[in-house]
Design a protein that fits this description.
This is Response regulator. It holds the Pfam family Response_reg. The protein has a single domain, classed as 3-Layer(aba) Sandwich (Rossmann fold), CATH 3.40.50. About 40% of the residues lie in helices and about 20% in strands. The longest helix has 17 residues. It is globular and about 35 Å long.
């Protein structure tokens, strides 16, 4: 029996937060990749064409932020969903791409999983090619 498997890339420089988010996603049945910086995330995106969704923090080490990553994905790989997580969601993050979703920090694991699920369902409903059935 084939089941739909989605791959989520978690981009977070705080290791404990990244591990907790990755564990929650894995427990919910997602395949998870991790990156501690935007440059690592770009590498993961280049190596893994099965990534369906990226969950990224805004404030990241180096010259690039999570918003920069969201903009790059929106322009270069619009079939990949993006959730930007920050304590500054709202008026302060007006420069995230319109296709990205802002998830306020802190949030519960249940809220994060619900947001991931809803975003993936929404993208699947519009017929995105990246959501074909996978074994």
């Amino acid at each position: 029996m084939n089941t739909i498997r989605h791959t989520v890339l978690v981009v977070e420089d705080e290791a404990l937060i990244r591990f907790a988010v990755a564990d929650a996603l894995e427990d919910a049945g997602y395949d998870v990749l991790e990156a501690a910086s935007v440059l690592e995330a770009i590498g993961q995106l280049g190596l893994n064409e099965d990534i369906d969704l990226v969950v990224t923090d805004v404030d990241m080490p180096g010259a690039l932020s999570g918003i920069d990553l969201a903009k790059m994905i929106s322009e270069c790989a619009p079939h990949i969903g993006v959730i930007v997580s920050s304590a500054r969601c709202g008026e302060e993050l007006t420069d995230i791409p319109p296709t990205a979703h802002c998830l306020p920090k802190p949030c519960t694991a249940a809220k994060m999983l619900s947001t991931v699920e809803n975003m993936l369902k929404g993208r699947a409903l519009v017929g995105d090619e990246s959501f074909r059935r996978r074994a």
